[in-house]
């Protein structure tokens, strides 16, 4: 029986189709329990403190956080907030995964500060990062220096 993992996937809403894809990919190795907030379960909240309380609950439950890095991810305030919260509350791995077509300039600033790994879309590397490897690579798979406080090259 596969190991169970509690996962939160931070993403820009326009990249939501990749949430299901990465869950499917990871489920080849793990029994995934995903607490991500997705548009198929809409939330009309507008109060920032209320939204943060919802996100805190989901992030506190997760043992690992994946940040999907797409062309607009670095522009999203909530993605940065989720990364910073995950990186400062509890012992969670924060892993950036480049979506196809994303570039190195799309990496959210908070991932550089609080990430444990940053990798291209590759099943073997994603699983290795989930299991504790601090892999830092560019969107094309070349070595990338870890610029944050948590990860190492």
Give a quick summary of the entry.
With 153 residues, the chain is an alpha/beta fold.
Give a quick set of tags describing it:
153 residues; alpha/beta; Rossmann fold; five-stranded parallel β-sheet; 5 helices; 33% helix; globular
What does this structure look like?
The structure is a single chain. With 153 residues, the protein is of the alpha/beta class. It has one domain: Rossmann fold (3-Layer(aba) Sandwich), CATH 3.40.50. It contains 5 helices and 5 strands; from the N terminus they run E-H-E-H-E-H-E-H-E-H. It has helices at 17-26, 48-61, 77-88, 109-114, 123-130, and strands at 3-10, 30-34, 64-69, 93-98, 117-120. The chain has a 5-stranded parallel beta sheet, with helices on both faces. It is globular. The protein starts with a strand and ends in a 23-residue tail after the last helix.
CATH topology: Rossmann fold
Q: How many helices does DSSP assign?
A: 5
Task: Label the CATH architecture.
Answer: 3-Layer(aba) Sandwich
Secondary structure tally: strands? 5
The CATH class name reads: Alpha Beta
Range of strand content: 15-25%
Give the overall pLDDT as a whole number.
Answer: 88
State the helical fraction: 25-40%
Shape: globular
Class based on secondary structure composition and strand pairing: alpha/beta
- How many domains is the backbone divided into? 1
Taking all Cα atoms into account, the compactness measure Rg is 14 Å
The N- to C-terminal Cα distance equals: 32 Å
Q: Summarize the biggest pleated sheet.
A: 5 strands, parallel
Please provide the ordered H/E string of secondary-structure elements. Answer: EHEHEHEHEH
Strand order of the largest sheet: 2-1-3-4-5
Low-confidence stretches: none
């Amino acid at each position: 029986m596969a190991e169970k993992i509690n996962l939160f996937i931070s993403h820009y809403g326009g990249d939501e189709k990749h949430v299901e894809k990465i869950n499917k990919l990871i489920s080849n190795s793990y029994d995934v329990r995903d607490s991500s907030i997705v548009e198929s379960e809409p939330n009309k909240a507008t109060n920032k403190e209320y939204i943060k309380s919802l996100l805190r609950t989901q992030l506190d439950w997760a043992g690992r956080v994946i940040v999907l890095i797409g062309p607009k991810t670095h522009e999203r305030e909530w993605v940065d907030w989720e990364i910073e919260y995950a990186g400062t509350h509890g012992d969670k791995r924060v892993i950036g995964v480049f979506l196809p077509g994303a570039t190195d300039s799309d990496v959210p600033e908070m991932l550089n500060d609080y990430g444990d790994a940053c990798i291209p879309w590759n099943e073997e590397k994603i699983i290795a990062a989930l299991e504790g490897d601090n892999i830092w690579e560019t969107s094309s798979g070349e070595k990338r220096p870890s610029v944050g406080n948590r990860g190492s090259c």
